[in-house]
Amino acid sequence: EDFVNRQPMPCHVLMSFTNGRRAVCMHGESGMGKTASLACLAGFAASQGRRFSDGVLYDPAWNLQGPASEPLVWKWLEAVWCKLGRLVWEQEATGLQPECPFQVLAQRLCAELLELQTRRRELLASSGSDALLLVVDDADMLTSEEMSLVHSIMNKTQTCVILTAKKPWNRCVGTYKVVNMALER
To answer: 152 near 133, Cβ under 8 Å?
Structure first.
């Protein structure tokens, strides 16, 4: 029932990434189903044969915040490690921890994304795209440091980004213009 009259939405959002666009913001008021739509879209985009096939970085639990919650950049790292077949505890054993300075984690994330993209390019050379899609729910809640990281990710790795927000994203992510798509009730 979350998707009545929204069946074409995933296709419309993904079509926005043609012609060089790299950032899309799905926006609408609280409680209208942005997060549910995002989960549906992430699954659709990750499906076999699609541009982002197995290249979607998203977990609905990322926007669950608690007193002992790990930083978002760490959660993104965990998602990339999963795609690379690495175990979190192995990375922690090298000294990398959620408590590390933001810049250390951010640099590592960009490096890991580049490695993931390179592996995908090698594996999919003849059969698909190496494109990655980072899905960010509640982007209007990101810190300026996290938004700056999203821009760095887009610059360094050619990763595309889907954001959700309460209002249209009437600003760029760094140098990238954001395509706004309103979700209707």
So the answer is: no
Please tell me whether residue 13 adopts helix, strand or coil conformation.
helix
Say whether pLDDT at 61 is over 50: yes
Neighbouring-strand partners of residue 184:
none
Cα–Cα distance measured from residue 168 to residue 178, given in angstroms and rounded to the nearest whole number: 9
Quick one: pLDDT at residue 5? 47
11-25, 36-50, 71-85, 126-140: which is most confident: 71-85
The DSSP secondary structure of 82-139, one letter per residue, reads HHHT--HHHHHHTT--TTS-HHHHHHHHHHHHHHHHHHHHHHTTTTS----EEEETTG
Kindly give, in sequence order, each residue whose CB lies less than 8 Å from that of residue 152, ignoring residues fewer than 6 positions away.
106, 110, 174
